[in-house]
Write a structure and sequence with these properties.
Blueprint lengths: L1 E5 L3 H9 L5 E3 L2 H7 L3 H11 L4 E5 L5 H12 L5 E6 L2 H12 L4 E6 L2 H10 L3 E5 L1 H5 L4 H15 L4 E5 L4 H10 L3 E4 L1 H6 L4 H16 L13
Parallel strand pairs: 1-2, 1-8, 2-3, 3-4, 4-5, 5-6, 6-7, 7-8
Helix pairs in contact: 1-3, 4-5, 5-6, 6-8, 8-9
Length: 225
């Protein structure tokens, strides 16, 4: 499963990219607004930091002609940009039009299998299926993800299922179990993937024993030699 970081913070992207496991970045209007930077400059800097990854940048209009104009502008900035489009009626129409023009898309704010079906039939490159927000209202967000993955495979759609609104590492585990193609998460959640109490206690014991024995990886040289 590909790992994307969901952020508009360039420094978070830089740190995640340094780990060597980052496959892409998703942004949204809220995350870009929180960054305090310009939209275009932020997206282009992210593309620079993740040269081989896909970077989703979202349109903000809700009327078809305006959405199309924004989508073409955004897609012109960099070859790695994927145009993010909300799953509304003009959005589905836009996904189909962009797909026909060879422009990659990310259908976002998808919460149900019927919505995912519309996105897949329109040719969306990615289908962003949200889980955390469904869990927040006492639903089962991951159930729709699993059903969407099964639907995509059964009918041979080319869309990739992207699990969004990931809140904690268990969501990542469930995304893996469902067979999702991508998981996108806040930087703080990606940091949590490193953590396990037995890793911390095990490392502490190893280092305590090593230092108590007075060992060194680099042999000490004799004085004067």
């Amino acid at each position: 499963m590909k790992l994307f970081v969901d952020t508009g913070d360039v420094e978070e992207v830089r740190q995640a990219a340094e780990w060597g496991v980052l496959d892409g970045v998703t942004t949204n209007p809220t995350l870009i607004a929180k960054s305090g930077k310009g939209f275009r400059e932020t997206v282009l800097k992210i593309c620079e930091l993740v040269p081989d990854g896909d970077v989703s940048a979202e349109v903000v209009a809700t009327e078809y002609d305006a959405m199309l104009k924004e989508a073409k502008e955004i897609s012109s900035w960099h070859e790695r940009i994927v145009v993010k489009v909300p799953l509304i009626e003009p959005g589905v129409r836009l996904v189909k039009a962009l797909t026909d023009q060879g422009i990659r898309t990310n259908a976002t704010l998808v919460f149900s299998v019927p919505q995912a079906l519309l996105a897949a039939k329109a040719g969306a490159t990615y289908i962003s299926n949200f889980v955390g927000r469904v869990d927040d209202i006492s639903g089962d967000g991951m159930a729709a993800v699993a059903d969407t993955v099964a639907m995509i495979h059964h009918y041979g759609f080319e869309s990739q299922v992207l699990v969004a609104s990931i809140r904690h590492p268990l969501h990542v585990v469930h995304a893996l179990e469902s067979g999702a193609d991508v998981g996108t998460m806040p930087f703080k959640v990606m940091q949590m993937l490193f953590k396990h109490p037995l890793t911390d206690s095990g490392l502490k014991r190893f280092l305590d024993d090593w230092h108590a024995a007075g060992l060194s990886i680099f042999e000490r040289t004799r004085a004067g030699r």
